[in-house]
Amino acid sequence: MREDFGDLHEIEQQAEREAAAAQTPEALEEVRVRYLGRQGLVTQAFRRLGTAAPEERPRLGQALNALRAAVSSALASRADALARDAREARLAAERLDVTLPGRPLAVGRRHVLTRTMEEIGEIFRGLGFQIVEGPEVEHDHDNFERLNIPPYHPARDAQDSFYLGGGWLLRTHTTVVDVHVLDAHRPPVRALSYGHCYRRDPVDASHSPMFHQVDGFMVDEGVRFSDLKGVLIHFARMFFGPDTRTRFVPSYFPFTEPSAEMAISCVICGGRGCAVCKRSGWLEILGCGMFHPRVLEMAGIDPQRYTAFAFGMGVERPAMLKHRIDDIRLFFENDLRFLRQV
Amino acid sequence: MRVPLEWLREFVDLADVPVDALVDRLPGVGLGVEAVERVGDDTVLELEVTPNRPDCLSILGVAREVALLLGRPLRAPGDAGARGLRRLTRGVEHSAAAGARLGAAQRVAVRIEDPGGCPRFVASVIEGIWIGASPSWMQRRLEAAGVRPINNVVDVTNYVMLELGQPMHAFDYERVSDHALTVRRARPGEALETLDGAVRALDETMLVVADEERAISLAGILGGRSTEITPDTTTVLLDAAHWDPPTIGRTARRLGIRTEASARFERGTDPEAPPQAQARAAELLTTLYGARVLRGMVDVYPRRIAPRVIRLRPERAASVLGIEIPRDEIVRILRALGCTAEGARALTVRVPTHRPDLTLEEDLIEEIARIYGYDRVPLTLPRGDTTPGITSPSLVADREVRETLARCGLVEALTLTLTRPETAAEAGGRPALLRNPLTRDHAALRTSLLPGLIEVLATNAARRIGNVQIFELGRIFQSRGPEDRPEERRSLGIAVMGRWRAGWNVPEEQVLADLFHVRWILDALLGSLGMEGQRVAPPATPQPWWHPGRAAEVSIGEHVVARFGELHPDYAQRHRLPHRAYLADVDLEALYRISAGRGRVAPGSPGAAPEAPAAAAPPIVPAGTYAGLPHFPDVERDLAAVVPADLPAARVEEIIRASAGPLLEAVELFDVYTGPPVPPGHRNLAYRLRLRAPDRTLVAGEVEEIVENVRNALRTRAGAQLRV
């Protein structure tokens, strides 16, 4: 009996050796067939069970089952190992030069002036302003006279207009939208508008016949010049950064009294003086003031009861300062290299 | 206004004030410093003087502000130095030459026909003048202030104008016929040759100074040639007048003339200044050139312009400014400005005549704040009722449109609204034309965004940027008649050319933008505005700039809301485009109306008065609605139909949808094929149908029935042969 069992042990060891030696799934399959196949050594060994003495059968059966389990396990673990090797070989072959450049997708964006106007709009919306729009073609009467600028007034020199006929013109400022809002609403009102404006300026590095403006105003009982300062300084810090300083100096607009100009500490040099701020440390960015009583009167609002502050600014200049753009023409040239940078 | 500091120092002591300190402080009172210039050994400040401050268009006026700023007294000017400011600013008394035998009144007559246009006219006569050059100190000052020296007489008039702000004019006395001056309106058809040699056609809105025969000077603006000072002049008639500002402004603008004189008169000069200017001119002419000034200037001043009186309530100042300035301080400031101020509660303020800009209480409040210092006004935030911050629905929609297109990879461009009339006309309709364009290139309002965008493609192509995907959102215009307001519409343009995707080993033919790229962008855009059921068809009236076989119209209901297609190759070639270009033109105005409308109120168009966003305004961008995820599996079936090549795919899809019924969830075209074995004149369209029932799993029988329905419909209604 001992030799019978020794014989099984030898089959087991031999199967394990052959399985371990198989280098491909095909070779391993041959090993499987040689031992576990219909004519395989293990299968044949099971046939001996029929000829064994009845008292031997349980032990022999046990030994045969153990043999079959051991061979199967050896085959399985070798199969795993081969599969692992194959996977690793495949992954190794799939190695990429990860330093190759990426393949760009088209990334679109809104124009820098659009984003600037919307950003300014959002700041004022947070202060309770309604954001509105108006037409680009206006009547001379609304664009000028309603803002206390009579015909032939010297202030019109700075706002030389494109006329269309019938007194219609391309609006020279978005301040004219204020007039329409004043007509349509009763105080309290806070409104802001932005968009294209037009002046008869020849094109150069800082002038374009078409440009953009933002204008806003607030009318209510008890609106003060100090409110104007507080609101505009909040805006300047939100837009240009929390360390921005501001300076208000007297100025003149026919539709405000008192009138002021707001300058911010130069964003390029921080106020020490540079070429951009003409060594003054200050950049004028915005005109403002308290609405002239006549402007309110013409809208049917009693200037003794209500006061209003108003402000207006070009959009190109703050955008140029923020993005360090040195030529206004770039905004309208639409060179894709520019549009994608800012 | 150019201010030589050396001249300014005659009026105010600046010995211990560094230039930098002065330059720093001037903006605080409203005098912006444009430039600081070295001229010889002097410094010239170029000041920005706002249109309301004609008084500061003079050395004296600037000195007054500087003296106020520094808290110093104003000094007397002139070579005489010690003669005192008093005589110059107040004295009508005359520094007449003792030798004059006759008074001026005997030598010249002055008549004002239009006292509204000319409230005051002062004339004087100077004899025994030898015309020559001015002394070099005077020439230097004039040049530093930006005025060209001409001759001693003209230079004196300019010198006085720069110093006191009162323009003067010198006539050759002998050439004034009858030695009589009349201030009158120009006659219809009257012409005048002005000093610059131009012949001006005048009309009756314009004021002239005339002698007995004709106009000899364009009042307050420019002298006439016929009475010009020449080397032979020996007797001079000097005028210093006060003119109605709008009259001067209107004439100067009508004739397109701007002179140092008109700039001052149209802003408003001091009605008290003419005699002072005459006195100062007389002083200079007698002391410098030994001229004889005839005694007694002729001063025609029919109705005296009284100093304005304004009521000022200190509490009103406090409520407008947001700071309580002590009453004593208010009074001190007003007096320093040359006003008188009296009264127990409200102040009665008499304004000096050299400040024509001060007419209302608000003007005085500004003056007080200006001198007190804007920087001393505190920062506050508005009190009272808050107002809701709302963005108007169309601006919200604009933002959504821009975001959608940016997500599709397009970059926003901004082109000028102004274009060439031919370009505007070609793009459609009747363009609105400018009456006074600067250049022909900018003489009309655009009627479409596409020409501008094609221009952008061309500009970039010329710079070797051949892959361009852009859009623009803006307004387009249509004329409704030469005197009428043009129609203004919100529009959107899209232009794509070249690769929409870059990178190594990406085959170009797979990533070149084409018609269907644009179509997809339009579908994405319509989807973002909640649109569905749009139909695409070839255009009803093809336009010349579209490729004749590659253009389409998109409509929703009755409205054509967009057009898209390939730019005609002739146009592409004319613009030297390196690739085929594809364009879309979207009527946003209509889309917004459909989106917001849906039976409700339409939003305001930009051509109307600005819309008033109220909380109730209908939104244009709908909130996306969650439709649930499917609970039961789908079934997919492919079918391939050989159809006549000219049968639109949209029609085939329509037939599929109609015949499949409600269980068809989606139909996707995945292949279009022509060539053998498909017979000529035909093409094979391969579709994948996805079927699903919301409430159960479909069984094989019903799927086959639906597919069979579709196949039958395609056979009978599309003439299709179906491949198995």
- Measured by DSSP, the beta-strand proportion of chain B falls in 15-25%
Based on CA inertia axes, which overall geometry of chain B fits?
elongated
The pair of chains with the biggest contact is: A-B, 102 and 106 residues
Radius of gyration of chain A using CA atoms only: 43 Å
Helix percent band of chain A: 40-55%
Instruction: Work out the oligomeric state of the chains in this entry.
Output: heterodimer
The overall average pLDDT of chain B, rounded, is: 90
Low-confidence stretches of chain A: none
Q: What's the shape of chain A? A: rod-shaped
The Rg value of chain B, from CA coordinates, equals 39 Å
How many domain units of chain A? 2
CATH fold field value of the largest domain in chain A? BirA Bifunctional Protein, domain 2
Count of alpha and pi helical runs of chain A:
12
Percent of residues in helices of chain B comes to: 25-40%
